[in-house]
Predict the 3D structure of the following.
Amino acid sequence: MTTSTVTAQTPAKTPEPAAAPDPARIARRRRLAQWGFVAPAVVFMLLFFGYPLVRNVVMSFQHYTPKTFFTGEAPFNGTDNWSNVFHDALFGKALWHTLVFTAGSLLGQFCIGMALAVFFSRRFPLNGVLRSLILLPWLVPMVVSGIVWRRILDQDTGVLNSFLDTIGIGGHTPWLTSPGMALLSVILVNIWIGIPFNMVILYGGLQEIPKELHEAAALDGASAWRTFRSVTLPVLKPVITVVLVLGFMSTVKILDLILALTDGGPADATQTLGTLTYQNSFVQLDFGAGAVVGNVLILISAVFAVFYLRANRTEGK
Amino acid sequence: MSKRFTSLALTAHPPAAGQPGRGRSRRVVAPVAAVCVLVAGAALTGCGQQRDPDVYTVLNSSTDESYHRWDAEAMARCGERLGITIEQQSVPASQVMTKALRMASSKSLPDIVQFDASEMPTFADAGGLTDLRSLGLSTEDVPQGIVDFGSYEGTYYGAARSVNTLALFYNKDVLDEAGVEVPTTWAELRETAKELTQGKRYGLALSAGGAEDGVFQFLPFMWSNGGDETDLDGPRVVEALDYWKGLLGDGSLSKSTVNWTQADVNDQFMAGNAAMMINGPWQVETLNSDKSLHWGIAPIPVPEAGADSVGPLGGAVLTVPDTGDEAREKTAGKIVACLSSEQEQLTYALNSWMVPANAEAAAVWREKVPELDSLADQVAVARSRTAKLGAGWSSVSLALQSAFQSALTGQSSETALKRAQQRATSGN
């Protein structure tokens, strides 16, 4: 992300004042300067993104164990790690959970975020105060949210169930303790965490829509819903793409929230590719298997990164 | 979170119009970029740290304020005796192993690492530890069980200061009020737990969470019943799991059990939401912070009267990593000897309520804290988790977690454990 911005910002060719001594030399010097701007970013990317990425791919073909840290030897074992991981029933489960989790979270975050953004784009008293209050979930570290929500969702002593009990609808919902329910609960918590991000960006996008567009629609006699569908949404499309793609990338690799809420349980009901990577690498210390799952995650993200870049490019035009 | 914020900032201002380059500043750019790269390079290569000859480091998991302080005091005393400075570096328990491995690959291992005893074999197996006997540590006063506890494949790598195991904690007031005795057998426990379950209060609390905590708690039931970790789908293990299912079915256990850590269990017990709990002595400090709570402790009930209550032996061991620097390793050995000396063990045990590893220290300790007598008895017969499986323990532990969670949330114990045994043997 950093490079795309930085490279795009390298000086565009501007007409040079006349009477330059040697145009070829100047052009060469300019190119050098351009590379000077790009170089730090390129070095940074190669060092902190390229190298780990390549290492991770290589590692997934190696028998990488605690011994490797001492001897530095990690014999290649072909596709053993890959076939082990793919034959593990848990991998299929985790992949499915990841997809459900990501799709559910994105849908919820986006819809609620959009609704709030539209709501707050009108003027009313306390608008600013309320808007900053809604930002709160964003300010709380993920692990803290996880721990607090674990208490809230506790089946017997949780606040949520006693509240539901008081108003008379199902006070014994097994939020995190039933394998059928846990994934849904985790998604709900993640939606809560993701709303501010969606709201803030969409709100910013809404602010940039020229008022005249809405006025024109009103003059044409369009209803509020029609205006939203035919004016707001199309104009907002680039922003929406960005929100969804960024949301996707931060959701698909979920780890901390799930570890804090359920530890992947009960009975592996909330294992995702993220927790599986963690479990393989740091609990079982089978770094090769962990790398395989990590690579699958990177691959999925890469597909969406392409979408992101394309969306960004059309926006720049 | 912060990552999200950065991306937001970048996207909110699309890279539309870049600043056009200015002639003069351009000449500066290349050198500046070069300097940046050099500085970054130097900063990276500067990571390999030099060891200070008089400062020795201990990597441990004493992140709790009280434990950190007790360790710091013990290290100060030993440092003074040996004429050196000892520093501790504390990371969360789950990170000790990975941190040590990373340090091993960058050749910056600390002089002493305190591993959880169940993790030590993995590090020893990788060839990372030094034989403590070769550094001059004697095991004469240490009971054989505790020597084995710190050994891997016959070599003594880890000196334990204190050990612990699980026991049954009960609320004296609640039991007195109901007029029931402290249960000693499975049948009694089930009966008592049922009787004590009233309103919001459950008869018993235990942890069946998806981590080592839950496995640790299942082991006394599995082992006392004759079950074995190498045969997870054996009838004895199935029976033990069925017993847990029975407790849950009676309503004596909260359904949230599958989501609780041992600390959660302690919170529930202290809040009065449970009349009894399975837990360890590391909770005693917290329990004692509530003066109105009168608790007692007893061995974990056994399947049949007269059987041995076999719990898992827990605790940490002090190890000396193989750094290749013999002189430093010798001194590190002396530090370990000092920290695990009889006197230091006693101090540590009295602070932390755990049982001293050393036999003589344990005898003194029993006199000083008679209320924890039953714990000392249980430790004497407790079993090490890694004695049979060594470095293979973690796969079995993961398989077992998934199994008892499946069983407690509806599957039959037999099916769940069959799957666990398959998973444990296939290695994934």
Remarks:
- The radius of gyration of chain B is 26 Å.
- Residues 1-26, 44-48 of chain B have pLDDT under 50 and may be disordered.
